[in-house]
Specification:
Elements: H1 5-24, E1 35-38, E2 45-46, E3 50-58, E4 63-72, E5 75-83, E6 88-95, E7 105-115, E8 120-130, E9 137-140, E10 145-150, E11 156-162, E12 167-173, E13 185-189, E14 192-195, E15 201-204, E16 210-216, E17 222-223, E18 229-230, E19 233-234, E20 236-239, E21 242-249, E22 254-258, E23 273-275, E24 280-283, E25 288-295, E26 300-307, E27 310-311, E28 323-330, H2 334-337, E29 338-340, E30 347-348, E31 350-353, E32 356-362, E33 373-377, E34 391-393, E35 398-400, E36 412-414, E37 425-431, E38 439-445
Amino acid sequence: MKYIKYPILILTGLMLLATACSDDDGPVKPAGNPVMDIKSSFANVHFGDNLPFTVGVNDEVSLSTLTVTLYFGEEKVAQTTLRTKENGEYAGVIPVPFHKDIPDGTATLKFVLLNTTMKSAQQEIDVPITRAQYPYLILVTANTSYPMLPAGAPNEYAVTEAFPSTDLPAYIKTPVIDSKGTEITFGWEGGAIAEGVTTNIPFTSPVGGAYSVTFNTKTYQATPFFELLLNDQKMSMVDKENYEIDIELKQGQEITVNGLADIADWWIDADYLTKEGEAGYTFVPIDGKYRISANLAMKYFKVEALTGNSPASLTENGTGAIWIIGEGIGKPSVAGNEVGWNTDKALCMAPIGNKKYQLTVVAGETVKTDNINFKFFHQKGWGGEFGADAISTNSEVIFVGNGNNGRDNGNLGITGGVTLELGVSYLFTVDVSAGLTQAILTVVKK
């Protein structure tokens, strides 16, 4: 039986070897004594600074990293990490964010020194941070720059000049006020002033000649901007030519518009607004939430039904909205703003109640007299739509395409040998009270 002895001895040796290897690969126990000596003082710190620091580090075992984290309250707002391969001094910078509306206060710098055994030392320092009171700001236009001087109120700056135009596209920047300071820029992003960009802010003065441009580096409030009010509520600027507001309206409610000196020249959509006096209107559609957009270039109010904060869609029970996309139609004119197959330009039919939706066009103005090719959709975009199996009409001037009669399935066309009468209004009404697959289109000359 001796022949069994040697395999057993070999097996026992392998087990002992495995155990020894396992012990070698076990977790490393924290060891050493990492020590930090923060040599920097943190005084006169401002939002937007690149804050420098120097730290002496040493340990009896190899060091790994030095991590510096900046906290505003409990929120971590910046962090930087340095490799610390050997004892000595290490220097770095950590950015101090510059954002709107942050009040002056005391932040926390947390230093963590870590060695290769994962043993660490930590230290926290309170750092007072303020918004810099600059000696000036710089208003930058395409052709020149203007100094904006402190205007009295905290963080407020202004410049008054005979600017070359009432439209003054420009951005604003700060000077660098000390060795740790940075240049902060303020431009236009997402319909508002934002830091860190240089896209021009669309300043616009209601008067020519000399006027003032102001800016607050804390609140980002600025002037001058064109101000447009609907029912005494300020419409938001999308860009210098477009303003909008989301608003709850009731059928028959009075609508007032203030801020447009040329309101008498504006094109008014009769499906949504009935004119009452110089700047007053009544609302035509049913109660609901709507987005009203004012286009200053085209002098046109566009109205769209909403569900929440998004364009409404047609629901299974026939409520919501119906949209028009296609060729030969456009507001305030088909020549200047044809919808085409651009879904962003889809027209929202006015919901008038009882699951009916209407659109009024004027031949030769908002619809072509001899050629149309548009259709009705369930949403402002591709998706649900009314094909020939879902909508029908008895109109003698408009037909619904079926794919074999000169129009694609569901697209509208003008009956052969017929033209719409120039200057005459036509009322298109879609009735879905019998269901979404039994819609009825009527077209009436007004």
